[in-house]
Design brief:
Blueprint: H1 3-10, H2 30-39, E1 44-47, E2 50-53
């Protein structure tokens, strides 16, 4: 389910995954977060003032 579908179904425009890691310790650095993002099926990653979106890459 894409984020736009989630918004249409729930009225909530954002999905926040608080358990970002995938069977690994919580990330401490941006590089670790990006590495996890690239290996998982997450659509987007917000990192400080940046939004990384797999659909645009």
């Amino acid at each position: 389910m894409g984020s736009f579908t989630f918004e249409r179904l729930t009225g909530v425009p954002v999905v926040l995954n608080t358990s970002f890691n995938e069977n690994e310790p919580i990330w401490c650095t941006p590089a670790e977060a990006i590495d996890c993002f690239q290996r998982t099926q997450m659509d987007s990653l917000v990192l400080g003032n940046f939004i990384v979106d797999k659909t645009n890459s």
